Automatic annotation (TrEMBL):
Residues annotated as domain CusB-like barrel-sandwich hybrid: 135-253
Protein name: Efflux RND transporter periplasmic adaptor subunit
Acetylation listed as a keyword: no
Domain Heavy metal binding: residue ranges: 58-84
Domain CzcB-like C-terminal circularly permuted SH3-like: 341-400
Disordered: annotated span: 33-52, 415-453, 504-527
Domain called CusB-like beta-barrel: residue spans: 257-334
Protein family per UniProt: Belongs to the membrane fusion protein (MFP) (TC 8.A.1) family.
Keywords, in A-Z order: Transport
Low complexity composition-biased segments: 505-521
Pfam family, one: 3HB_CusB
Domain CusB-like three alpha-helical bundle: 171-220
Length: 527
């Protein structure tokens, strides 16, 4: 009996110990979880990071740099862990100090500033056309009748010297008979010379006059020959037709060279110059290329397509290119001057300034205002602000920008730029707008699940904003869809205007509207 009592007492003690341990574990976990989600209200944390041995001032979310937390944990704004701010990471001389572990978490990569020539091939399309400078017009030299046509249809190919038509000219009979009469007269050489001059005035050429004088017969007919080789573009003659002196009979286009009328995008016109080398390809002759050069740029922009026409002259061996053919054109711009080049993704373009982050070593990064130039492919020209051999951040620079804003580095840089004398000072503030759903309203800020914000290159996300200076409108509540405007401040982003969006407006018409199923879990807090 005593043995059973001892067993029962032992089981009760073990159960009490287990319950107490579970309660302590639950309380500790709950305290740790809530500690990470509550902003710090006291002084510096004073804790030591076991991984680095450095003193931790506080924890923060790099994507929402305003709130500070006194314990590590998961960010209440984004789906990411809070990042510690160490006591020695206050930066120096405008630099941003980021630990190697944080750099690895942010995926920061750098690239060298190199010196080179920014040139790339411009790919455009165009169509083949006749070379209008290689055109011959065939006209009737005298009034007469078309007795015979040797070339009877447009687009027939002709060779130089080939007979085209035969004309009967009645006026030539009289002047030729007058010549023969003067030659038979005694001492009529002067009259014969005058008759020869009248034959020239009637439209006879020297070859026809020699034929008349050598044969002693009247030749009232003339055979018209092709002056060049090519294609009959226009045919205005028919057998039996009466024609006047100077009437057009044929229009012949040469095919030894052709034009390609190419459509150059307006943004690429600065890279194309007359004389630039051109390589053309056409689906009609796969695998074969045609070489040429840009002859001229026509001074007119198509208002509908925003393109400029370029006239390209190509050699046409074996006359394979025909007018109307489609062609793909590769333009090689002339080699420009050497300049500093960086990957285009290294430049943060805010609309009022262009910033790159230069790696200064030892985990330090310096924001630098730069003046950019032309861009081709994945490179952009830097005209001022950098030197060859420096390393710039090409991946994760937006998170470095948030880190810099947290420390006030960007604000100091902007203030320094504003204090310098400028002739054309950009606006001090840039407003951005979007649409989102109100998730939380508190004294410290407003949490919104918003759609894309193109002016900041942001995707959909959930984040906290500082409330408007005058407070939120009274008709805004949690769960409402609102259109908002906000601006960048030193420690985050502040709402400047909030307007409810009525439910009667179609979702497709609401700017930046998000799918109904979008929430924190689906968006992941990433951009």
């Amino acid at each position: 009996m005593n043995q059973k009592k001892n067993i029962t007492r032992t089981a009760i003690v073990a159960l009490v110990i287990a319950v107490a341990g579970a309660g302590g574990y639950w309380a500790g976990a709950r305290q740790e979880t809530h500690g990470a989600s509550q902003p710090a209200t006291g002084g510096p944390g004073g804790q030591i990071d076991p991984a680095t041995g450095k003193k931790v001032l506080y924890w923060h979310d790099p994507m929402v740099p305003g709130p500070k937390f006194d314990k590590p944990g998961k960010s209440p704004f984004m789906d990411m862990q809070l990042v510690p701010m160490f006591a020695d990471e206050s930066g120096d001389n405008g630099k941003v100090l980021i630990s190697p572990r944080v750099q690895q978490n942010l995926g920061i990569r750098t690239a060298d500033v190199v010196e080179g020539t920014l040139s790339s091939t411009v790919e455009v399309v165009g169509s083949v056309a006749y070379n209008e400078r290689d055109v011959a017009l065939v006209q009737a030299r005298a009034s007469g009748y078309v007795e015979r046509l040797y070339v009877r249809a447009p687009l027939d190919r002709v060779r130089k010297g080939q007979p085209l038509a035969e004309l009967y000219v009645p006026d030539w009979v009289a002047v030729q008979e007058e010549y023969f009469a003067a030659r038979r007269m005694q001492g009529g050489q002067d009259l014969a010379d005058a008759a020869l001059q009248r034959m020239r005035l009637a439209g006879m050429n020297e070859e026809q006059i020699r034929l008349v004088t050598s044969t002693g017969k009247v030749h009232p007919r003339i055979t018209i020959n092709a002056p060049v080789s090519g294609v009959v573009d226009e045919l205005a003659a028919r057998e039996g037709l009466t024609v006047a002196a100077g009437a057009p009979l044929y229009r012949i286009n040469g095919l030894s060279t052709v034009w390609i009328i190419a459509e150059i995008p307006e943004a690429a016109t600065g890279q194309v110059r007359p004389g630039a080398a051109v390589t053309a390809r056409t689906p009609a002759w796969p695998g074969q290329t045609f070489q040429g050069k840009v002859e001229s740029l026509l001074p007119e922009i198509n208002a509908a397509t925003r393109t400029l026409k370029a006239r390209i002259e190509l050699a046409n061996p074996r006359e394979r290119l025909a007018p109307g053919m489609f062609a793909n054109i590769s333009l090689t711009p002339a080699t420009g001057q050497r300049s500093l080049l960086v990957p285009s993704e290294a430049v943060i373009q805010t609309g009022t300034r262009n910033v790159v982050f230069v790696a200064a070593g030892d985990g330090k990064f310096t924001p630098v205002n730069v003046e950019i130039g032309a861009q081709a492919g994945n490179q952009i020209e830097i005209r001022q602000g950098l030197q060859a051999g420096q390393k710039v951040v090409v991946s994760g620079q937006f998170l470095v920008d948030s880190e810099a804003s947290l420390k006030g580095t960007i604000a100091r840089m902007v203030d320094a730029s504003a204090s310098a004398p400028q002739t054309d000072r950009p606006p001090a503030e840039t407003s951005h707008s979007g649409t989102g759903r109100v998730e939380k309203i508190g004294p410290e800020g407003v949490t919104l699940s918003h759609g894309p914000i193109p002016s900041l290159h942001w995707g959909p996300m959930t984040m906290a904003f500082k409330p408007p200076p005058d407070g939120l409108p009274r008709n805004v509540a949690v769960g409402d869809t609102v259109a908002f405007e906000m601006r960048k401040v030193q420690d985050g982003y502040q709402l400047t205007a909030v307007t409810p969006v009525t439910d009667s407006a179609p979702a497709a018409m609401k700017p930046g509207a998000m799918p109904p199923a979008m929430d924190k879990a689906s968006m992941g807090g990433k951009r």
